[in-house]
Amino acid sequence: MSLQVIRIPHIAFAAALLAAVSAGPATAQSLDGVVVPSQRCTTANCNSLVLNGTINGFARPISGGISSTANPWVASFSPGPITGAGCLRFAVTAEQDDLAMAVVGPTHVVYTNDDSGCTNGSSRCPRVVVKPLSAGFYTVVLNHFGGASVESNFTLNVGRYSKDANPNCAGATVGKSSAAKK
Questions:
Q1: What's the rounded Cα separation, in Å, for the pair 15 and 175?
Q2: Residue 100: phi, psi to the nearest 5?
């Protein structure tokens, strides 16, 4: 289980990541409390936090056979203070296996995506764009699209963009409320 940061284009990202890692062990299975600063750039995934991660699935012996365990990759990110319009963009840009993503917002709205497209031309990578934003943390869960137990590497770009008109905010993912109906 490992997590590698391959590019941090902004000093605030480095500080946020250092704070998150210093607070406890950062592994491919959990990364918590990263605050994503707002960007004004307009090219795809520009100035985003770029994370390499691994989905860790493994087989373990049990009585009468072998059981496979699918362990998702989980992280939480915050847009920081909400001072206007904008979005959070979570985009897998490379993957070994077909992954799906779920993002649970601070107001219990769930955003899901399976196949939005990778930067390498594959159509399988998930991407979730959240707008409008709410104050609090967004929990991101990545796993195999069918729940299979896989050992799979991926690259996740996380960016916050300051204007709704920013191309990175286009195609917002429709969320579904997980709040119980009365």
A1: 30
A2: -125, 155
Would you say how long the chain is, in residues?
A: 182
What are the pLDDT digits (tens) for 55-95? 887 766 677 766 677 788 999 999 988 877 899 999 999 98
Q: CA angle at residue 72 from 68 to 73, to 5 degrees?
A: 140
Domain ranges within the chain, ordered by starting residue: 4-171
The rounded distance, in Å, linking the Cα atoms of 51 and 31 is: 10
CATH topology of domain 4-171: Jelly Rolls (2.60.120)
Cβ 75 vs Cβ 16: under 8 Å: no
3-state secondary structure of 39: strand
Q: Which helix (H) or strand (E) holds 113?
A: strand 109-113
Residue 140 φ then ψ, to 5°: -105, 130
